[in-house]
User: Which sequence fits this backbone?
């Protein structure tokens, strides 16, 4: 009989696999046909939908991305990674909650493509941002969210340089894991910076909700930057491969707030 912990672990690993597919496709189409991601994240799922067995893969992504979101929500709720309750600890836990929300949104878009072949009309992120802007202090909320993305970008860059993410990966992982992760996190730092700037412009500089960039659109906006675009696209592809390694070798903490400090923190 499979216990709850083992089920949880399998779901999280499926989540890492889904993230691997998402970033690998993003990197590949950015390197081969950047125009397909010009419409944002929808372009990524549309590309997946056009692959042989694409619909089945989309349904796997729906489950996996939602499972990964639940895993990230477990951080602020249960503190399963033992980040603690000081300012730094809560900063990490809130960051994981933000990641969870982002992956719920990705899962929803994947669901729309899996069930109907396309996402609903209405602008996605732009429509949501317009709703936020319509409420009091909504612009400030979006601006602050942009600053949060800047902080997240710095955190990604720190991981790329320090390699501290290796503390959470089994020693049996391939020797290339450090390099792949470093390149991937560096690329994500660039993308997060672009997304953050679009949010700051919308919130604090009143540039309009249409200016907000999602994952795919942020990468597409770099197409005129030459080497920066190429290196970022390669890094995102490497992050996809890195995520595939994590699906097998990531050390997943227990879903139990009383379980003590996870092995990777001891």
Assistant:
């Amino acid at each position: 009989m499979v216990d709850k912990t083992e089920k949880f672990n399998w779901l999280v690993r499926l989540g890492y696999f889904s993230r691997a597919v998402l970033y690998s496709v993003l990197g590949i189409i950015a390197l081969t046909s950047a125009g397909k991601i010009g419409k944002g994240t929808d372009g990524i799922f549309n590309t997946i939908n056009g692959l042989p067995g694409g619909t089945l893969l989309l349904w796997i992504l729906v489950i996996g991305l939602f499972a990964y979101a639940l895993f990230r929500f477990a951080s602020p709720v249960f503190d399963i990674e033992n980040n603690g309750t000081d300012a730094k600890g809560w900063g990490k836990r809130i960051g994981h909650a933000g990641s969870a929300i982002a992956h719920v949104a990705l899962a929803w878009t994947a669901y729309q493509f899996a069930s109907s072949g396309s996402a609903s009309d209405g602008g996605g992120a732009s429509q949501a941002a317009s709703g936020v802007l319509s409420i009091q202090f909504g612009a400030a909320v979006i601006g602050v969210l942009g600053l949060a993305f800047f902080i997240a970008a710095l955190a990604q860059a720190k991981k790329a340089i320090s390699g501290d993410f290796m503390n959470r990966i089994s020693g049996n992982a391939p020797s290339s894991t450090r390099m792949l992760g470093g390149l991937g996190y560096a690329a994500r730092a660039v993308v997060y910076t672009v997304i953050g700037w679009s949010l700051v412009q919308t919130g604090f500089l009143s540039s309009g909700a249409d200016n907000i960039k999602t994952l795919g659109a942020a990468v597409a906006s770099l197409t005129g930057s030459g080497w920066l675009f190429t290196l970022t696209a390669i890094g995102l592809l490497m992050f996809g491969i890195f995520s595939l390694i994590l699906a097998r070798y990531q050390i997943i903490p227990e879903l139990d707030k009383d379980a003590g400090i996870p092995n990777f923190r001891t």
